[in-house]
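Course assignment 3, question 2. Fill in each field.
Student: A.L.
Task: Predict the tertiary structure for the chain below.
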Amino acid sequence: MLQQTPVVRVLPVWHEWMERWPTPDALAAEQPGEAVRHWGRLGYPRRALRLHECAKAITKSHGGEVPSDHATLLSLPGIGEYTAAAVASFAYGGRHAVLDTNVRRVFARAVRAEEYPPTATSAAERKLAQALLPELGAARWGVAVMELGALVCTARAPRCADCPITHVCAWRLAGKPPHTGPARKGQTYAGTDRQCRGRLLEVLRAAHGPVPKSALDVVWADADQRERALDGLLADGLAEQLDDDTYRLPT
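Answer field:
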């Protein structure tokens, strides 16, 4: 839930999920459409489907217990490098480098004297992160670096005067050279296919049964974009079309 989404938006949804589905087998017993429905407005709703698939795999192959082994976690549906490392480290105390956006920014500045990290995580970043991991307390270290990036070494207005490592920060000592890589562009949302998809999903989430095509048509004026977005939802498994030309969340 926290991938590409701020904590303040995730918390109320997470609490609802934990009350409704406290264990993987509880989520696995539900229809995938219910996961999409209760994902609400977090965005990137395919994550809800992957989480449901993951819960089913954990229930079927691991007795309902989330694996602690990093390689096993990576084999689960929807689990990538970051999530596997985070679960193995924070839940089970494993020694794994957890590289989120905040951590990568701290390392870029403090070690490589660069204002921002590369767009995609590089092999060099992974090697550096692993080399910096302490032998003991790796999970605490990971959380500490995350918090440093989230609260102090922020993207737009780093609070260098409050930073506990400012005296050794390579970027500060180099005079804070500006970013020289590709321009960092913020993601737009208004008027995009993502927004259109979200509007269509709102209709499906609010209905506890199939809805006619007309109920979807009225929420977005651009017919071509609306049809493209609806086709995308169907292709991604986030919606189903029935024989009578009605639509519903996946079952």
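Instructor remarks: The mean pLDDT is 95. DSSP finds 13 helices and three strands in the chain.
Grade: pending
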